[in-house]
Amino acid sequence: MNLPLDGVAGLDPRWSRRVTVKAGVVGDGVERTWHVLDNGVTDPVGTLLCVHGNPTWSYIWRRVLAEAPPGWRVVAPDQLGMGFSQRLSSPRTLSQRVDDLSSLTAALGITGPVVTLAHDWGGAVSLGWAVAHASQVTGIVLSNTAIALPAGTSGPSLIRLADTPGLRELACVRTTGFIHATLATSRPALSREVREALLRPYGSADLRRAIGDFVADIPFAPGHPTRPVVDDIARRLSSLDVPALLLWGPRDPVFGEAYLDDLRRRLPRADVHRFAQASHLVMEDEPSYAATVWRWVTRPRVALASPGRERPQLWAALDDRADDDAPAVVEVGGRSVSWRVFHRRVAEVAAGLIAHGVAPGDRVGLLVPPSADLALAVYAVWRAGAVIVVADKGLGVRGMGRALRSARVDHLIGTAEGLAAAKAMRLHPPGLRIGAAAPYRLLGAALSLADLARAGRDHLGVLPEPSADDECAVVFTSGATGPAKGVVYRHRQLRAQVALIRATYGLTESDRIVAAFAPFALYGPALGIGSAVPDMDVTAPGSLTAVKLAEAVAAVDATVVFASPAALRNVLATQDELTAEHRKALWKVRLLMSAGAPVPVALLQSLGGILPAAHKHTPYGMTEVLPVTDISEQQINEAGAGDGVCVGRPLPGVTVRVVPLSPLGVADGEMTAAPSIVGEICVRAEHVKDRYDALWVTEQAASRDAGWHRTGDVGHFDDQSRLWVEGRLVHVITTSRGVVTPVEVENRAEALASVRQAAAVGVGPAGAQMLVLIVVPDEPQRGPLADVPMATALRDVAGIDAAAFLVRDELPVDIRHQSKIDRQALAVWATDVLAGGRP
Q1: What is the phi-psi region of residue 219: left when phi exceeds 0, alpha when psi lies from -120 to 50, beta otherwise?
Q2: What is the pTM of this model?
């Protein structure tokens, strides 16, 4: 066969070679000719062996070849009958293809170390080769493939359709239908040049014969002759003790989430990254695919950080207060559960979970709003040695579904509303569905928490004691700057967090907390303090009124309140509804904490009339590490006005540095704590998250400085070592005169009495962006352009040239906190307005 590879988009013809090889043990000993892409590195430090699937060819690995680092050999063969390899007179089975590949690698002198890279049904061939050459293999990388049919599935629908009698010949051989259907899965659509390149080896029915043969060899039925071969490779895979990386396109209609879940169970220590927008041909859909492969293959081996000293279990306070009849968890307008009852019920439900098959390390999705039931579910799951997965409804139904699917939950606990949402999200975990308050059989829940407690009374033996290094939680970021990310915590990290919070705020058993902020609704039992959940939707902070806050404080005689800025604004707005009794209860609060978004000092000062005895604090942190710093109202006043929001000094045991920004807004300098240098904020502490879940690439970027977490926030230190936050790295404006951070400009604009809110965004290409200032005026204006008096006032206070001043009735904010401004959406809107679009 001719090799017309000159002019093929992205393919260097110097990589192309033909190799004649005699088939090995399983084969018939006949010589056959392979086409191979090989960068020809001699004496390599390692070899990347790339195996394509059906109906592609080695062309899909062109970027991996092009980006190979020095010293690495890349070999990407066309499987026999495919691409530009020799066409066959009869079909090849999986066992023959594994043997064929072994014969080829021997002929090419590949002896190791080898990392395998495979896609589609090339995954089975590559894994068959890997388990047969275990001594040579140092890693495996897989993308949208399978080694078995996951339980409850019958195989990819597109391939099953193509395997229909009569249709296989028509779709796979006589026409290019199967190829076109595969190429059509790409998101975004493939370019014409790439489509033509992928079709090039398959211009006639004779050249497409192996495509149909490949489909016929897939063992859908139990009696298929290839099924024992697949089962044997799958069984032997568990003994292949090498690092693994799973790079996945979750929009794939061929190999969906069930196939990724199956591989994650077979390779429990594998690194995983889901490219959220990619489909089946993930290496085509995701531009960074090749760079990601090489980053993983050549990654340095970093020693794990020291876990620090051992701390008590998360439920230690429950054990300490097991005989206490004081309230542990109170729902305002609902139940009140004592420490004695809560301790007993946690143990019973934990034993019930174990009796019904929940194993240590299983992931349990919780679709329960903050309540006594949620607290019970959280601590029972932990007590059973399992892992909680919490995705609150502030993410929206689509966001929750995406989050819980990415976290691969094994079981679900939900209210009726939560379980109905799970159905709407098409979330089908393989294990238990448990109703929080009732079985909810119509929603698939055969058990309730009460049922588990009754079952657990008969199994109250010795409950497991998770180690400090066992995983205990997957929680999700707010999604304010992109899809919500799963954040994994181990027991030692949450224990360190609880200890730091207790020490920082001087919490004792005599304290009680009103948790009007979703994360802290779960911490009362671990802190050993009684907690009350206000009569509000904790995922909608603005639903907290002054009366509801006062009622929650009175319910537990609270001394501490934790609420987001959005919740506190509404408390202020509704304070006229308070009675004398309400105010008397609020006067006993000694500590107010507020977090989730920047907290203006004016807001804290305004709360003095409602909470006159409360010391007001604003901890700074994020889902990945909270708290990092803390600052009181008094300290904010002492710091005065500055460029950004002063968040105080790092807490004991926490180290903070900044990485300076380049003129293009890239944090690529050396870490420093020197004053007045603006950069990305980095944190090191015992309670920093373990990793991002199924987001290996994101985790590598955030932890590329060993032992540090890059927060994505930007800021600087002042000359008294106080940290000032100036916004998010993705919101930095890169003008021709230098970098501008948004918060400093917004603070100046909001100093005007005529401005309620402000947002500074960049419009245009990086390095030459124009600053646009968008404000919500105190008095409505005809927009979107600010009138002359408003524009003049803003120009005088902004302290920087702005290309335009725009007005809106409101600024978009995140769903969870209702406080974080969506500057990316505003930048798109401003670009459209300035281009003449309709506002």
Answers
A1: beta
A2: 0.87
